[in-house]
Amino acid sequence: MKLSLNKSRSLWWAISSAIILISLISMAISWQNPQIGAPLRPGLDFIGGTRLQFERDCTELGNCDEPIDINAVREVAQAQGLGDSSIQIIGENGISIRSKDLDVDQRTKLQTGLTAEIGTFDPEKNQIDTVGPTLGAELFRSGIIALIVAFAGIIIYLTFRFQLDYALFAIVALFHDILITLGVFSIFGLVLGTEVDSLFIVALLTIIGFSVNDTVVIYDRIRETIKINPERPIADIVDDAVNQTLGRSINTTLTTLLTLTAIFLFGGETLRNFSLALIIGFSMGAYSSLFIASTLLAWWRERTGKSPMLVNAEAIDTSASSQDS
User: Fold this and answer.
1) Longest dimension (CA), the chain
2) How buried is residue 300: exposed, middle or buried, by Cβ count under 10 Å (0-12/13-18/19+)?
């Protein structure tokens, strides 16, 4: 079975546009939310503060018989002047609280109040992290700079290896992947309270590298086919290039997603959002390489008249003129 991508390219673009629009709307809503104040719910790494994660000790008789009541946790936090804290239930017996900076006495008092209300915690599973606002701002700034440098490097590389239009559409595909990943996490932040941390920036950089690699493979096949059959329409060349690399793209993506799914399911709480971001980004990267970057290139070459036939004819005319002179 062969795919004819360019016959249905309006459909692929419409699907992507709809998902990106939903993502942008979600990020706008998140930005207007006074409890978030950003396109995505920022984690402790970026805004600073104290995060406490407790898990009940289920080895004690009757300690885990009842589910944790989040309203009870909020009442304890409010009684200690921490009513604006972000509170999440983790699993069936864990809670995560992100608040302003707390000293040792405040943390101990909060833990004591929660123990009295919802049960005894396992001291071996308790986690307490503190990050200053200055360090958080520096991490965010460094992450943004890293993303900008990555995009600039990719544009320069693709422009020299291929042509400028190849590079621009590869960047459009990368923005497509990043925006959708951001949008999904924005929705998760609004609905589930999911936060992004410094590992999320690492995930975005990894997504960029994976996506552009897939796009380069397809572009390389397009360029090779143009050299061999310069008289063919660009849409046919692009369709053939995609079909020739389709098996490789599917196999690479599936094997990677299997590993990431295992990390998501069994890698622990710390790596869960990281692996989830990669799962979303890699899936979108494979989609955009096949259905967005390639079809945009074909559309642009048709629109500007830069079909292989015309480019080849111009090259022949130039060569003939040089011989005559």
Assistant:
1) 98
2) middle
Mind listing the pLDDT tens digit for each residue in 15-69? 999 999 999 999 999 998 887 778 888 877 777 778 888 888 888 888 888 888 8
Residue type, 174: L
DSSP annotation of 40: S
Q: How far apart, in whole angstroms, are the C-alpha atoms of residue 239 and residue 221? A: 11
Cα-Cα end-to-end distance for the chain: 51
Per-residue tokens: 246: 């389709």
pTM of the model: 0.73
Q: Which residue has the tokens 């004690």?
A: 60
Nearest C-alpha neighbor of 140 from the set 10, 45, 258, 31: 45
Task: Record the tokens describing residue 51, joined without a space.
Answer: 């995060």
Contacts of 233 (CB under 8 A, 6+ apart): 307, 308, 309
Pairing outcome for strands 94-99 and 86-90: antiparallel
Cα–Cα dist 277/188, whole Å: 11
* Residue whose token pair is 């990043």: 178
Cα pseudo-dihedral 120, 122, 125, 128, rounded to 10: 50
Q: Phi and psi dihedrals of 51, rounded to 5?
A: -120, 125
